[in-house]
Structure formats: structure tokens, C-alpha cells
Amino acid sequence: MSRLHSDALEMLRAWEPPTAEQAALRDRYVAHLEARPDGMRRTCYPDHLTASTIVLSPDAAEVLLTLHAKAQRWFQLGGHCEDADTTLAGAAEREAMEESGLAELRVDPVPVQLSEHAVPFCDPRGGVQHLDVRFVAVVPDDAEPAVSEESLDLRWWPSDALPDEDLAELVELARSRAAQSTSSPGGASRWAAADQPSR
């Protein structure tokens, strides 16, 4: 069992879901990882875990979204785990930094939401389900994102005027989590860099 697999399993077992629906998904993810030592890898068919980050502006009034080249829809930043990833939060942070061009980004290591969804373009065999674990990050005041090769576009959207209704619950949960963190001693600055190899 890899360090990444162990981290994800331990984190999900300890996570406190916000709803009964999220609790059921948490149990589904845990069962998947217990049954599949390769459950974090893209090659795990038909289901595998992925990691993503909803990126908020400093005042949480806006969210940074990417226009996915294959799906042609606006999403949070994220994707598949890689062999060098050692934590799930670290995978989410790496993906967000790669897709946003942001050199400084710190994710909260506690997930805000789980989402299981079909991804028809992930494998030519079809039937793939991404078991996405979603985190939140708040950018520094002077952050300047840049479009990557993985995106058609990258744009700030008002938190109350999102391009896709499916993002509304995620953004609400992320803003709530960020507000809780920033109101506590140390604030979001306590979010440490995820445990990743040097870039």
C-alpha cells in the first residue's frame, strides 16, 4: 500500500461529513480503497480517486474556475493523482498550482466535499467513475493566475453568479470552511504546504 493510499484512507475514515449523503459517499470511498490497493491510480478501472481544489479570492467573493478542454465546462481545478504524490491534499494542491499558474497556493488539508461522477473521456472502455475529493484554498492578495495547457480558459467568477449550478454547493461549503478557518487563531495562514516533493 502506497503512502498516498494510506493517507487517503486514514483521512477519509476520520473525516466528518456535512450531510448524510456525504457520509454515504465517504463510506463508498473507504470501501473502494479497502478493496483496491490501486484505488488512487488512474489505471484503476472503472473507479479511482481524484483530487481537486476550489480556489477562493481573499474575501471569498469570487472563485477561480477553469474551462475544461475535453468537457467544455467550467470546473474547479484538479485531476488525477500521480506517483510522486504522497498525500491527497498535496495532489489537490499540485493540480491547482499546475492548472492556475499560481506559484504560492496552500490548500486546507480537510476536504469540503466528495463527488462521484461519470467521466466518459477518462478511459476508452467507458464506464469510469471519478471519486473526487474536494479541498479549498484561498489565494494571496497579489495572486495572478495564468491559463495552462490543460485549460481553454481560466476566470474569476462571482460566488453568487456561477456558470454551473452544480458548483453552488461546493462553493458554499468552501466559503463556510474558509470563514471558519480565518476566524480562528492563525487563520488560513495555518494551512501548511502539502507534503510534496520539491517542484
Radius of gyration: 16 Å
Shape: globular
Strand content: 15-25%
Mean pLDDT over all positions: 88
Q: Report the helical percentage.
A: 25-40%
The CATH architecture: Alpha-Beta Complex
Going by helix content, strand content and strand pairing, the class is alpha+beta
Amino-to-carboxy terminus distance: 24 Å
The largest pleated sheet is described as: 7 strands, mixed
Name of the top-level CATH class: Alpha Beta
**Strands, total number:** 7
Question: Segments where pLDDT lies below 50 for 5+ residues?
Answer: none
- The CATH topology annotation reads as Nucleoside Triphosphate Pyrophosphohydrolase
CATH superfamily: Nucleoside Triphosphate Pyrophosphohydrolase
Overview of the structural elements:
The chain is of the alpha+beta class and 199 residues long. It has a single domain, classed as Alpha-Beta Complex (Nucleoside Triphosphate Pyrophosphohydrolase), CATH 3.90.79. Helix content is 28%, strand content 24%. It has four helices and seven strands. It has helices at 3-14, 20-35, 88-100, 168-182; strands at residues 47-56, 62-68, 74-75, 77-80, 113-118, 129-138, 151-158. Strands 1, 2, 3, 4, 5, 6 and 7 form a seven-stranded mixed sheet that branches. The longest helix has 16 residues, at 20-35. The chain is globular and about 45 Å long. The two termini are 24 Å apart.
